[in-house]
Amino acid sequence: MLRRILPHPLLTLTLAVTWQLLVNTVTVGSVVLGLVLGLIIPVVTAPYWPDRPRLRRPVRIIEYAVVVIWDIIVANVVVAGIILFRRLDRIRTHWIAVPLDITTPEAITVLAGTITMTPGTVSAMLSADGRAILVHCLDTGDPDGVRDQIKARYERRLKEIFE
Amino acid sequence: MSQLSEVAISALLVISGLFGLVGSWGLVRLRDTLQRLHAPTKATTLGVGGALLASMLYFALTHGQVSFHELMISVFLFITAPVSANFIAKTHMLHHVQPEELPPTGRATGWAGYEAAGQGEGSGN
What we know:
Chain A: It is a multi-pass membrane protein. Chain A: Keywords: Cell membrane, Membrane, Transmembrane, Transmembrane helix. The structure holds 2 protein chains of 2 kinds. Chain A has helices at residues 2-5, 9-23, 28-45, 60-85, 105-117, 143-162, and strands at residues 94-99, 121-126, 132-137. Chain A is mainly alpha-helical. The longest helix of chain A is centred in the middle third of the chain and has 26 residues, at 60-85. The two termini of chain A are 28 Å apart. The mean pLDDT of chain A is 84. By secondary structure, chain B is an all-alpha fold. Chain B is 74% helix and 0% strand. Chain B is elongated, with a radius of gyration of 21 Å. Chains A and B meet through helix 2, helix 4, strand 1, helix 5 and strand 2 of A and helix 1, helix 2, helix 3 and helix 4 of B.
């Protein structure tokens, strides 16, 4: 019964908090409206998430976020340097195939997003069986090193969080 | 507002402006679509981030109110920017990149976009 009213408590909480942050002030009315939205939206959208992601170690998300934000700052400076100072024919662009150990769609989605936001890499495609990801790297002298870094820095942490 | 906070806010705005400019310059300078894709997805995240941080600091220090809108904007950007970049990359690849140019998947199957496009005649567009 409770499961039918509250199919996804975490989503309910996220929506209520998001609404609060959007409104930017805490009043009784906005809290009630946030909770109503948090109750209705999960029920209405339930058919779209048949398997909800399971978070094994939610605390690790904070560590992951800090690592990613730091990498984004570094990536910005590195890419800006390449754009401004590198001769065009000296930019060593590579395709890199990264085999995946993670299997849950949510973890792969987060990994693909992270790859796109960080050091000179954009995730382009998955293999048809979803066990490898194709990465476009703007400039690297060591494609294998980039692959190993993605696996060690991001995938390992996501595996701990999701699987 | 103290001198120090004014300097901090101005510095953040200048930094964000510089990175936005570099990102746009990258669009002009780099050679192909996939290389250009790197410029706006990277250089501008710090551009937008710096402006949002400056805005939060400004409201916190001068009006004494904490604003969460900037945090929400960055969260929404982080969720949407990689998705649009991925769509642009895939569209470009299906039109201009042959599967032979890509590294092997290391799996029994090929890359997803090409597998789907290869099955139905002309359905890949």
